[in-house]
Write a sequence for this structure.
């Protein structure tokens, strides 16, 4: 596909920083990118938005030389360019900041910056040059970071700056950022946006890949929407709305905000007092957590990943041990002994949708029906007799759950890894919710889940609340916490920084608490 | 123990530590690049046989040395193909190569010489002979240091000095050069190297081939320096002790020198039951043989600092989106 016609004429009028014409890429029978054309103006911030699996990452991998497109053309500054490998992408002036940073943890910032861009066979000249360049870049773009610090000692926000510095050190004119704010606090994200705007003012072109509509609206000039491997629209950000973008992404109308009635909380179901957890490295991960979740309410735990939320879920779910007091419906739970395991917790009426469904929630190589039985494989209805399980009963039950939760494809014998992220999550949620628990622990319910499934899972959580169940929700997505929770507790460094009412608080206030600033217990 | 006996033991220590040091540095290159290599033993054995066989046939130890390096390189190449190109399990590949080496060396030696899987004894130009360092005689009048220089430092074969020189050379290469930076990076996070536009495959192959060359030196030293000819299983687990030393040294070159000297010292002591008897202690020889492994377990258990292997070690690199 050469894309002569109208595209050709536009390109000759004003060269774009990047222009893609008719890019297609298939992996076996799966068409990841289908005839994609896009034009990115020089010195602009261009957003690319789409659900998981829409083909954004594939497209960017083609631009960075990880994959070769089956057909189509890439033009950089109006010149046709081939990008067979990452070296060529770097030479063409493209810099990439991946979602998962590509840094060497026990190297210094300087060593990471020069890696692959050394001046010669000896390191010393490269290091001293990089030190000077980094100083200049820091002054110019608010990109301060200690050049001699080890990466493993830096915060996530600073590590991301190192990635940006790496690209700028290689004299990138086009910077691609893949889901850059997923791991940042709101304040760090604001800082990142200031950096990006500064880069734009210097004439750099920035491509921002994200699934967060708010970011697109806040910082981009233009936005392109991808759906199922195709580019469905490119619009000027100022002339669109989050609702319109969501509809373009999913292909139908989507409720961005969960509809829910005010909560009618009943008696306390979960009471936690002074809960402490010390990990294998003898680091105190929970430093005296106290909280209460009542029947018929959702308590949302906000916080940047790694501040003790995972440990809280693990102790409550019976995966980790701790000290302190946990009461469920007034009965004290065993935290260290024989009855502190997951099976006892399930018997007590606690269901757990873990944060990382691929590690803790599912066995990826096992079929859906086996995964549905996990944790509940002792249930009487799954037994044929004293020795054997009744696999037919489990399969039938799985089919029923798949129908209720709209799991696609509804095939119980399919391995978990062959479902999309959203459908995997539906399998886990179906398994846990359908057991009618008193308390549901749910961590990152919509991580890596497409918008359509997010809406569905959110509805299920609210429906469970309305049946009078207690729900403890942990999420790093502030939007999700704010729209679902009846009360919000913010965790920082193993402590609860404070509790807020979602109706009266705002992102700024929560963001400060998430960064450990203010709060009543600080 | 008198000073002369002590010097004798130190002299033996240097001889016995040399193959350990060469193999340990060999393993260091591969493992620092993220390719675990349990097959040091097999490569050494292969090199010991090929170098002794070719030296016996040609009468030249230098041609033998070249053959030894080629023999180990061949095995390194197979390990590289299996674990880098075809992303196989590195441990299984290493173990398999050890088994192959154990059998094929005897088979080839038997086919060539018909002496029960041995090579004929080497002598003269077919093996490495001791080198006398300058000023040995004039310096031996200096008390303490003079005899030390004569007995322990001087009078070793060529490869002993090569091994010693490889320690600072490896340190310099690892920490002062572009190649070293990339080598260390590819063992910690190959994706960082890949996205910087550097080939992970090529870097890892380079490292694995360096490992082959150094194993070649270690094996050749065994059969043409330390001993005069090849015999069945003559490396006797030295490849594994070298791996233990590598862990003990936490994958660092100077510490590798220290660890292999220590382990060499145990081996030297095990050869002198008379010295042990004189101390009044009754230490069975097998206990001395086991010491390197016991010390390694102690280090692995985190009792003396923590040994953290290269983070990407053992994992084939698969490009991800």
């Amino acid at each position: 596909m050469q894309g002569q016609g109208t595209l050709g004429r536009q390109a000759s009028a004003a060269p774009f920083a990047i222009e893609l014409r008719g890019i297609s890429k298939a992996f076996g029978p799966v068409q990841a990118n289908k005839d994609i054309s896009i034009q990115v103006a020089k010195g602009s911030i261009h957003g690319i938005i789409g659900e998981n699996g829409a083909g954004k990452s594939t497209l960017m991998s083609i631009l960075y030389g990880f994959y070769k497109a089956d057909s189509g053309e890439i033009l950089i500054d109006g010149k046709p360019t081939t990008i067979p490998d990452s070296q060529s992408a770097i030479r063409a002036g493209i810099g990439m900041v991946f979602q998962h940073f590509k840094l060497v943890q026990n190297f210094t910032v300087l060593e990471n910056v020069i890696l692959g861009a050394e001046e010669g066979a000896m390191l010393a000249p490269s290091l001293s040059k990089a030190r000077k360049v980094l100083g200049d870049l820091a002054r110019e773009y608010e990109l301060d970071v200690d050049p001699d610090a080890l990466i493993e000692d830096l915060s996530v926000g600073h590590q991301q700056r190192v990635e940006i510095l790496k690209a700028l050190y290689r004299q990138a004119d086009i910077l691609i950022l893949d889901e850059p704010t997923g791991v940042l606090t709101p304040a760090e994200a604001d800082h990142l946006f200031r950096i990006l705007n500064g880069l734009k003012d210097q004439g750099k072109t920035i491509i921002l890949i994200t699934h967060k509509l708010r970011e697109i609206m806040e910082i981009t000039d233009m936005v392109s929407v991808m759906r199922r491997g195709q580019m469905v629209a490119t619009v000027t950000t100022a002339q669109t709305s989050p609702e319109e973008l969501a509809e373009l992404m999913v292909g139908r109308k989507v409720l961005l905000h969960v509809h829910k009635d005010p909560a009618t909380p009943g008696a306390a179901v979960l009471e936690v007092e002074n809960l402490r957890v010390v990990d294998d490295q003898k680091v105190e991960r929970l430093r005296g957590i106290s909280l209460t979740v009542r029947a018929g309410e959702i308590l949302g735990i906000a916080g940047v990943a790694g501040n003790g939320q995972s440990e809280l879920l693990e102790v409550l779910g019976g995966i980790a041990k701790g000290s302190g007091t946990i009461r469920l419906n007034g009965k004290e739970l065993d935290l260290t002994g024989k009855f502190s395991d997951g099976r006892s917790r399930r018997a007590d009426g606690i269901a757990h949708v873990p944060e990382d469904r691929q590690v803790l929630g599912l066995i990826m190589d096992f079929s859906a029906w086996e995964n549905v039985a996990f944790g509940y494989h002792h249930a009487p209805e799954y037994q044929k007799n004293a020795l054997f399980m009744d696999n037919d009963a489990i399969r039938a039950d799985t089919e029923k759950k798949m129908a209720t939760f709209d799991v696609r494809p509804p095939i119980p014998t399919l391995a978990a890894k062959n479902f999309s992220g959203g459908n995997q999550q539906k399998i886990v949620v179906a398994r846990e919710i359908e057991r009618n628990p008193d308390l549901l622990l749910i961590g990152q319910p919509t991580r890596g889940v497409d918008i359509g499934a997010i809406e569905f899972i959110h509805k299920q959580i609210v429906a469970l609340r309305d049946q009078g169940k207690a729900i403890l929700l942990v999420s790093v997505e502030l939007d999700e916490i704010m729209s679902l929770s009846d009360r919000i507790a913010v965790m920082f460094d193993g402590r609860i920084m404070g509790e807020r009412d979602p109706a009266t608080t705002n992102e700024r206030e929560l963001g400060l608490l998430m960064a450990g600033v203010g709060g009543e217990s600080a | 123990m008198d000073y002369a006996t002590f010097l004798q033991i130190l002299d033996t220590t240097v001889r016995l530590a040399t193959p350990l040091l060469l193999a340990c540095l060999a393993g260091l290159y591969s493992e620092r690049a993220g390719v675990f290599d349990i097959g040091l033993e097999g490569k050494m054995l292969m090199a010991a046989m090929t170098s002794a066989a070719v030296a016996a046939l040609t009468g030249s130890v230098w041609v033998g040395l070249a053959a030894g390096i080629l023999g180990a390189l061949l095995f390194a190449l197979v390990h590289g193909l299996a674990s880098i190109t075809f992303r196989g399990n590195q441990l299984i590949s290493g173990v398999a190569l050890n088994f192959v080496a154990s059998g094929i060396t005897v088979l080839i030696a038997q086919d060539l010489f018909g002496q029960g899987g041995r090579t004929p004894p080497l002598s003269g130009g077919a093996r490495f002979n001791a080198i006398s360092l300058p000023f040995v005689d004039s310096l031996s009048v200096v008390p303490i240091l003079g005899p030390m220089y004569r007995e322990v430092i001087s009078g070793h074969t060529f490869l002993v000095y090569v091994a010693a020189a490889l320690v600072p050379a490896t340190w310099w290469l690892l920490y002062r050069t572009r190649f070293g930076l990339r080598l260390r990076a590819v063992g910690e996070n190959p994706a960082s190297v890949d996205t910087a536009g550097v080939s992970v495959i090529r870097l890892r192959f380079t490292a694995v081939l360096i490992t082959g060359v150094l194993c070649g030196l270690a094996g050749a030293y065994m059969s043409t320096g330390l001993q005069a000819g090849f015999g069945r299983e003559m490396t006797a687990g030295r490849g594994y002790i070298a791996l233990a030393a590598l862990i003990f040294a936490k994958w660092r070159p100077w510490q590798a020198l220290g660890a292999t000297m220590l382990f060499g010292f145990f081996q030297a002591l095990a050869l002198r039951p008379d010295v042990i008897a004189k101390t009044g202690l009754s230490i069975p020889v097998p206990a001395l043989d086991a010491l390197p492994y016991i010390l390694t377990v102690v280090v692995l258990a985190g009792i003396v600092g923590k040994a953290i292997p290269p983070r990407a070690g053992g994992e084939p690199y698969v490009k991800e989106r």
Q: What stands out?
A: The mean pLDDT of chain B is 92. The longest helix of chain B spans residues 3-32. The two ends of chain B are 65 Å apart (CA to CA).
